[in-house]
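> @MW can you paste both from yesterday?
MW: sure, first one:
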Amino acid sequence: MALVETVIKLWNGWEIRVLVLLSLSLQVILVAFGSKRKSTTSTWINFLVWSAYLSADWVATVALGILARSLGSNAPNQNHSLQSFWAPFLLLHLGGSDTITAYSLEDNELWLRHLVGLVFEIGVAIYVLLRSWVDGDTTISCIAIPVFIAGIIKYGERTYVLMSSSTKHFRTSSLHYVFGLHFPAENCGPDSFPLLVAIFFEKLQSLFADLIFDHHQGYRCNKLIRGLEPRVAFKMVEYELGLLYDLLYTKARLVYSCIGIFFRCITCLASVSALVTFSIIIDEHEYSPVDISITYLLLVGAVVLEVYALLMLASSDWLKLYLVARKKCSLEQVTKYKRWSRSIAKYNLVSFCLPKEATMWIKVQQLLGIYEMLEKHQNVEWQQGIDDDLKRLIFHHLHRRTEELEIYSGRISCIKLLNYRGECVLNEMKLLDELKWSTIDVEFDESILLWHFATQLCYHDYIKTTDLDSLNCSKISRCLSEYMLYLLVFCSNMLPKGIGEIRYRMACEDVFDFFKGRKGIQIEEAYQELLEGCQKLELLRSQQYSIIRNGYHLAEKLQNLSKRNWWREEKWEMMNKVWVELLTYAAGHCGWKEHGRQLAKGGELLTHVCLLMAHFGISGQYQDRKLCDGQLPTNRQLA
């Protein structure tokens, strides 16, 4: 019992100190890593930011409550007077950092809850300061006033930004971009990068708000982007999405404005003045050395975080764009920094389904019921960097398709382009009648699975007889096939609705059955057996549905193209174009909210393709001109 009482007494003495230090530590984590998640796919960084974001408000709120309770229930002493000085810092922490205000888009919708919290927490902080004043230590209360003001500003900024980024307010603020949207430069080129970003980013905000555009605006956008090189176009899209991330998940909407810069100067001066005044006026011998050390940590931490915020302001994308426009720095200097992960996730069906050796670690995972989830993620590979050939292929595909777009004929032509998912390429190559059963005659998710399996078979057959130097034409198809399967398995919300998960599991069962009892088999050996296993595959006809049997037949037909005087490179170029068409179909049918969610997870190539399509004029949000003449659209039309 004595030991328990000692521990309880020790905890009561250190409770508020531990919480205050923990609150400061969480803020440091959020400031240091809050903006990193837009340019990385690291699970650990995302988990760290997620944990800190969820814990930060709770820790600061509990600490404020304990401070109020301790001042209200105990006799006043010097330690309590100094600890009351910590209340404004907790309010400052509740205001959050400039680098992250929302972890997900849903957090923006909770701005009203933060407003109620703002009123409540300010009331508690005022109560703590008044109790300290009444208890006789007016010096500390006076020093705390500047920090208290800075805390109110920070918390108010966060609430305002959350409100502005919510769906309703974001849409309202974007309305004026649609009606009367003008393009001041008809012949912009790479030298007009800042102007192009400003023009297209203005449109991106309205796209994200699900507003509508006149077809003539799509025509003007198309003319502007046609004059760019693929490399510059992708850089511009990356820059735009980086700015959109700032609007949705940080304080950029307010910070990069005149009033925001003014507020930042006030909060910085408040922190510096509090540190200087405290170090000069306060007699450190009157208080506990531990509390003095914690107070200095809070003061120095506040100053360092404010200085860091100013440095971030000076190096922001918004300022860089201004400097490029003024020719103070080059385009290459501005665009070399990552604004998304610049990586493609790849997932291979056969590799995942190969039998694994039952190690002790696998048995533990199976016992805990987490083996399947962990195994799926462990089989995801990340390709760093987007191949320039892939960029050119996507850009020229959209360029060629929009040549067919009759921009003045209404919305029908645009919808037709959005709904191509391989049949247009096959029709051009005179293969539609032969292969349409694998594209337009099946659901989209089934088409992905069929072409993924067939592409992998063709690739592994191709590399056996080909020099490595001539493999680049096939690598694009393989990359896109594995990327689209990754989207189907891990990001199904970004693809058109269907029963893709069920079909994927059935395909896995087929592969499991094919390699049943073959533990330790290597991937190259597995594909060799699949290529030679025609008779075994035919046995799957007894099943009502078989992805790998139909995928094998698709691979056979693709391989037989070489018997029709097709060069192997021509076959792979055709397959590349089919995969790009499947990619653009998925991009055009994914909602902007889903694209916005992916910005906080390192970004997706699919999002960049979707925005590039919109700039080319390929979007369902281009409507008839009459909607933009004379009256605003109705709520149903905006939805």
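MW: second:
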Amino acid sequence: MNALAGRAAQAVTSIRVRLAVALFVALLPVLLIGAAQSFFAFRAENDARRQSLELAAGHSATLARARIEAAGVLLQTLGPGSVGLECAQRLADVRARLSGYANLIRFDSRGRVACAAATTPFDTQRGARAWFQALRNGDSIVVASAPGAAYANEPAVLAAVRAGTPDRFDGAMAAVLTLTNLKLETASRFMPNGAEVALADSNGAIFAATDPKAFEAVSARWRQEAAKDGSALWSGRDQDRRDRTYSAAPLVEDDVFVVLSAPAPGLVSWASLSPISRGLLPILAYVLVLAAVLLVTEREVVRWIVYLQRVAAIYARGRFTVRPLQAERAPPEIRELANTLDAMAGAIVTRDASLMDSLAEKDALMREIHHRVKNNLQIITSLLNMQQRALADPAAKAAMNDTRQRITALAQIYRALYQGPDLKRVDLRPFLEELTAQLLANDMTTSPLVRTEVHADPLVIDPDRLAPIALFAVEAITNAQKHAFGPNGGKLEVGFHVRGEEAELSISDDGPGAAESLGGGVGRTLMTAFARQLRGKVTFESHEPRGLTVRLIFPTPQVVDAAA
């Protein structure tokens, strides 16, 4: 888990991530400015669209009002005095000559149809209708938002003028005008795509529309604003719950209004397409610039850094012969860094060669020193041997022989050092075998009759610990030679075993000697001193019926080094 967390942290803090973050922050103001410009452009576009819709409503109302006023003039011209007996025929002729009228109708004072240019729906309550009563009460012209009957097969409005004198009501002349006749067309260049047009009464109720579903059911909240300011603009939902924008303008005073309905700006609508495209372009440019910079940086910088990192990892494993040849295609800075890395590897190789030469020279010198020390110790041994033969006192000869044996052990250490592969370490097992043979060979009177067995575990040890072990073995073997072996010889066993944290050196014989035979002599004192030097202990064990084992137990050298 720690390794995974470390790799994750390294990935997060890598040069790629840091560079990407830096570029993101550096280019962020450009993105914010582009987004702000797109937002303000969208608002300006939306305001312009709403204003266009409002102007379209006023323009449509103006055209429709002019059309109704023209119809009023026509109806006044076709008053009762000018129609004559052939009323229906004349109205039909006028309707045929003047396009734009669905029907022309003459009503009497009770609301009954006197004559008409086309078929007129039957309505028994026409005389009581609000628009007819308004004419009866003195209004000169009325646009009927709710005429009470369908006077055309398409959305239409009924315009009527009073017939008679101010003191006498003789009925009305009416013209039926469709929305198309009123020039309320949705395909006008003033209209946005998807626009619908309708007529609403003073209460806000829609009574004629190109598409009734495109308008709110009944709402008069905009009527006061339209009557006051000449137009009104608001947003709402149609009968299908779709967002739309509405605009209204009065057609006939405060009684009839022209209402336009257009779809509200959506994600892909004509009004928002341009602002959104202006907003997407900075984002797209931001993404492209960020990707381009990251790509160029990856190919021109990061991949060369990764390449040099791999070369450095190879150098870390000691392979300095590898050269960064691929860096020749890299930018000058990377190429210079690669050359520096190559020069550093060459310098390391040269220095390693020099160090190896110095080390080889040092090893040769140390081996020569060990050889000379061994030779000097052998010279001393030879001198002691000559001096021993010149002595007549047996005690003096024995003391001289013990000294010679100790010096022989030290010489054997130096011989093992300069002949071995390591100048600082000696394998204890072959050393004990050779030392035992050397000590017994020096006593020509007993060695042929002494059988030796050496059982040693392998252990590489330094000279500082080998010296007391060797001298301990010399004292123990010398003691066996003196007290255990007679003219018939005997058996000598040398054992060395490593048991975990402790190592044990044991030297056993089968002679008649016992532990008390050592007394308090120099040999026992030296063995105790050597054991203390190794931070170990020495024991002497007698065996029945014959035999003595001298045992040295001390901490294993590797364990001692670890503790230190």
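> thanks! The longest strand covers residues 168-178.
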